[in-house]
Design a protein that fits this description.
It is found in: Cell membrane. The chain is about 75% helix and about 5% strand. It is mostly helical. A hairpin with a 2-residue loop joins β1 and β2. α1 packs across α8, α1 runs antiparallel to α9 and α2 runs parallel beside α4. The longest helix has about 30 residues.
């Protein structure tokens, strides 16, 4: 293990954590405020990447395609909320799980019919191609640094939106007592629709930004959705701050564990045993972290106020 390799993996972990936060932020808002378990949040991440493929092809520009893809994801989120999610308000969580699982199957097949099953790629914007020198022997891709910066900017804007604006006040009040907020004259159905669509757009933003560095293919959001649920359990349901901290923890632990755990185990056991145990323990590391957090803090690290 060298310092350069450690720094590279820390940056890779931060990048994964930022992508997880963008997905988990919308998921925790929908779950914490609307009390809806949305298993289809992963396909909204996938749709964001596919919409970005089409938008960049139509406009010939990453920067023109990005707002177009996000606007389309926002509109699709509003349609999905009105047609499928709204009838699920107040229903049993099992019914919500079944309905949103059906959406996963439907959207995955629709994507294959529309874009095909072969992996697609989003061209890297020319201005962000190449790498930047961070220190001697360490050059890191500019695009990945921009992705980390964009995620941090979104986290800051979300914090201001939730804690310093009237929309955030209504959001927190709706999470605490939606019938009371509705009785005060607030269009709670419209508020929930905007929250759901905004969460869908955040997931789509993650997918669009990940497109130039990952292959765009059907089912690409399924694995990320599982980690996003781990993030909101660790951070606390309905907590943006908790989602941010937990996403970074999960991203770093997952990346560093897969990179270095085998070498660390070789210090205390044979090479063959370490090679067998290291990858297995690394893949379980985030779930072990979740179990520890649930044992000591059953409501997560930063639970939303009751």
């Amino acid at each position: 293990m060298t310092l350069t390799l450690l720094l590279v993996q820390i940056l890779n972990g931060l990048q994964l954590g930022i992508l997880l936060f963008l997905v988990a932020a919308g998921l925790t808002l929908v779950f914490g405020v609307m009390d809806v378990i949305n298993l289809a949040h992963g396909v909204q991440y996938m749709l964001g990447a596919y919409l970005m493929v089409t938008a960049t092809a139509l406009t010939g520009s990453f920067w023109l395609g990005l707002p177009l893809a996000l606007a389309a994801a926002l509109a699709l989120g509003l349609v999905l909320e009105r047609l499928v999610i709204r009838p699920l308000y107040g229903r049993d969580h099992l019914e919500q799980v079944l309905a949103t699982f059906g959406i996963i199957l439907f959207v995955n097949e629709a994507v294959k019919m529309t874009w095909g099953s072969a992996p697609l790629a989003i061209p890297m914007p020319e201005a962000l191609s190449g790498s930047v020198r961070i220190m001697d022997g360490l050059n890191y891709p500019v695009y990945r640094l921009v992705l980390i910066g964009a995620g941090l900017l979104v986290a800051g804007l979300l914090y201001v939106l939730v804690t310093r604006t009237r929309t955030g006040m209504l959001l927190r009040a709706g999470a605490t007592n939606a019938p009371m907020v509705s009785a005060l004259g607030v269009d709670i159905a419209g508020l929930f629709a905007r929250i759901f669509a905004f969460g869908a757009m955040l997931a789509a933003f993650a997918g669009a930004m990940a497109g130039p560095i990952l292959s765009v293919e059907p089912g690409m959001g399924d694995g990320l959705l599982i980690l996003a649920f781990v993030v909101i359990v660790i951070g606390g349901i309905g907590s943006i701050r908790g989602a941010f901290v937990a996403a970074l923890m999960v991203g770093l632990i997952d990346t560093l564990g897969r990179s270095f755990l085998t070498d660390i185990l070789k210090l205390v056991m044979s090479a063959s045993a370490a090679s067998a145990a290291g990858p297995a323990l690394a893949s379980m590391s985030v779930y072990l972290l979740m179990a520890l957090v649930l044992f000591f803090r059953p409501r997560g690290l930063f639970p939303a106020p009751a």
